[in-house]
Amino acid sequence: MAKAPLDGIRVADFTWVWAGPYCTLQLAHLGAEVIRIETRTRPCVTRQLPPWPDNQMGLNRSGYFNQYNQGKKSLTLNFKHPEALEAARKLVACSDIVTNNFAAGVMERLGFGFEDCKKLRSDIIMISLSGYGDTGPYHDYVAYGPAQVPLSGLSSLTGYKGWPPMHAGFSYADPNGGVHGAFAVLTALYNRAKTGEGQYIDMSQWECAMGLLAEGILEYTMNGREPERSGNLDPFMSPHGVFRCLDLPERIADVVIDQWVSIVCADDHQWLRLTRAIGKPELAADARFMTLADRKRNEDALEAIVNEWTSTRRVAEVVESLQAAGVAASACADNKYLAEDPNLNARKYFVELEHPEVGVRKHCGMPWRMSATPCEVRAPGPCIGQHTDEVLTNLLGYSASEVEHLRALGALE
Amino acid sequence: MAGALEGLKVVELGEMVSAPYAAKLMADAGAEVIKIERPQIGDRARTRGPFPADSPHPEKSGLFLYLNTNKLGVTLDVTRPEGFAVLEKLAATADVLVHNVAPPEMDRIGLSYDRLRRLNSKLVMTSILPFGLSGPYRDYQAEDLTIWCAGGVCVLNGGGPEHPELPPLKTFGQQAGYQGGVHGATATMGAVIAALRDGVGQHVDVSVQESIASILEMTFEFWPYLGAIATRVGQKPIQPLETLEAKDGYIYVCCVEEHQWRNLVHMMGDPEWADWEIFANRLTRAANWDALKPMLQEYVGQHTVLELYQTAQSRRVPFAPVSTMADLLGSEHLKARGFFVEIAQPVAGTHKYPGAPVKYSRTPWEIRRPAPTLGQHNQEIFGNRLGLSAERLTELSRKGVI
């Protein structure tokens, strides 16, 4: 069997929370050996956030942590002890990549600034994933994923017409920064293969997020105007929206679950197909809806017609009949819908590995398939410190008695 | 100094956002990207704005100009056998072919990895498709909004528990495309690195739906871990994480860790209510958000955005302003980092664009050329590079193939 793309590449992973771990998840997916350096004295935030099975909290029980740390190893080191710093130096010396998302200056204080790491390994590639970047007047501001969405400008562009700015509904800038960081690390690896030299990468989540809203920024730089929030509408397509379907027939945890479908007609042909699919071919000749300009002018009336049709039907039925007619439509999937999605399951997207504390649970896998160097999730998210002994003895050359000594000192907390 | 991907040769057969963004990331990092567009019409992104002075023009689309920096542009009708033969010539000497041609169209024109690998065993071919190249939705019609919804993210955003009647709300712009693009570029680089090692290329099948399902924070796991549905109408797992209205605009109030909350309480002058049992920790503050929100709103409403932002930051509480476009362009921080880049393009003029996603210490990210005009590099690529004769080029042009 062919080796995974990053087989043999090792990552000394000082990251935590979400952005950094999402970066190193990509590297783990591609076959790198990612060793997360953790400490029980301040466990990763995501180990302490829900969901936990039966709502019973536990450092190894969080679905949040277990999702984004699949395939990685966990080494616990307490940097209050010089012996722990020494072990981390040994790890860096035999790694290809060092990652971190600490506040500015922390890595330098610990002795793991880029110049320090370069002395340990001359061709090291290092990335710092921060909220604001390494330089600039706000470089030491604290940033957390959810606050990066409004900071980036995405919130002021997102929202129902006439409403205040809205969020994206999740800490979008975290995974976006993480995956842009992973891409950058891979370009540096490619370059190292060509030149033999490593380098340092300064990634700002804020800047990565602004790369996603060029249309808003250019509206301002070209025309001096702040774009108006316009809900789910689009200036070049109509209808373009999310419409109500029948609720889920069964209650979940005693709650009625609403269901929605997205429908888009990119041009007049698709609009004609939609009129037939919803059993109203007479609309094709309706002057209110003949052209895009007509449909945009009468969009409220148009949406009411579509909504009337969808609201008495189940999502799957709406999607199937519209797709059969050649109209873009998709469920507005919630997590249950996603878990049962026929396409994701047919493509074996989900990963179900046995975890010692939470058993077998569905986790999201990787969004690509490779024909020659298959990528797979090799292990579930690690329990805290699960690989401490293995890494220290097999990789870093500590004897069993030295490991016990470190443990007795508290250096492996 | 050269970019990190100096020497990497990429051919892009892309429309709108996903494949073009993947190729832009590579081009901006130093790769040579040849972008193929349909003769006469070009990339559909050319028809979307924003346009200077709101005047639509295929060479002035802000979206197109942003997504296609640093690329060489040719026009070629790959749906015709003569055009496909030229594509094969380009693929024969490329390291990467990245495309988002829909699967039914791939079948019609005969675009497949099996066909191209015979010409170039080292080629990495990346297909970035709404639902990937297999599965029952393979041939589904899709637009950015429908894929964003299919990936399970749209349902997380909207009017919240107070307005369950409002539909799930998309995030501004073409977000499905961007996520498909950056995840596709990441997978492509993995395959490129494998090709350097193994001497053979491969096919990379990227699903945009899966790219989105991969970034759902902790929400997806509420189903397999707890049998619970996580949507916009549910309660947030922790609080405060909300946009509130300050004296002169909006501020995002954010406390993830307990010490941040304690610092915020001090910042507010240690009000008595902050000691109430119902606000004891981030989980109970979420459960009692109805009670907490008015308390916070009262405080926030008495201050300006800048006061709140800087006072909170001085206490290590990660507040952030709700930036407008004017705020971004005027930001001293972003100016000091040189984030926005001015790009001059002969037809559209000179404008500021979002710049580098990362800063490299050794291999600079840089704009070497603006997005190509339609067919700008036909002569350079078809004539000089591939050696097609002037007569042949004229003939292909007359037939509408280039």
Provide key terms for this protein.
heterodimer, A: 413 residues, alpha/beta, Rossmann fold, formyl-coa transferase, domain 3, 2 domains, six-stranded parallel β-sheet, three-stranded antiparallel β-sheet, 18 helices, 14 strands, 38% helix, elongated, B: 402 residues, 17 helices, 15% strand
At the first level of CATH, the class of the largest domain in chain A is: Alpha Beta
Number of discrete helical segments of chain A: 18
Shape of chain A: elongated
Largest interface chains and counts: A-B, 167 and 156 residues
The amount of beta strand of chain A, in percent, is 5-15%
Provide the CATH top-level class of the largest domain in chain B.
Answer: Alpha Beta
Biggest sheet, spatial arrangement of strands of chain B: 3-2-1-4-5-6
Instruction: Tell me, rounded to a whole number, the average pLDDT of chain B.
Output: 96
Radius of gyration of chain A: 25 Å
CATH topology of the largest domain in chain A: Rossmann fold
What characteristic shape of chain B results from the CA principal axes?
elongated
Write the layout of secondary structure elements.
The complex is a heterodimer of chains A (413) and B (402).
Chain A lengths: L9 E4 L5 H11 L3 E6 L24 H6 L4 E4 L5 H12 L3 E4 L5 H5 L3 H7 L4 E6 L14 H8 L1 H4 L15 H23 L3 E6 H6 L3 H10 L16 E5 L15 E5 L3 H10 L14 H6 L1 H12 L4 H10 L3 E4 L3 H6 L1 H5 L3 E2 L2 E2 L3 E2 L2 E2 L3 E3 L17 H8 L4 H10 L4
Parallel strand pairs in A: 1-2, 1-4, 2-3, 4-5, 5-6
Antiparallel strand pairs in A: 7-8, 8-9, 10-13, 11-12
Helix pairs in contact in A: 1-8
Chain B lengths: L8 E5 L4 H11 L3 E6 L24 H6 L3 E5 L5 H12 L3 E4 L3 H7 L3 H5 L6 E6 L14 H7 L24 H24 L3 E6 H6 L8 H5 L14 E6 L2 E6 L3 H10 L14 H6 L1 H12 L4 H10 L5 E2 L3 H6 L1 H6 L3 E5 L3 E5 L4 E3 L17 H8 L4 H9 L4
Helix pairs in contact in B: 1-7
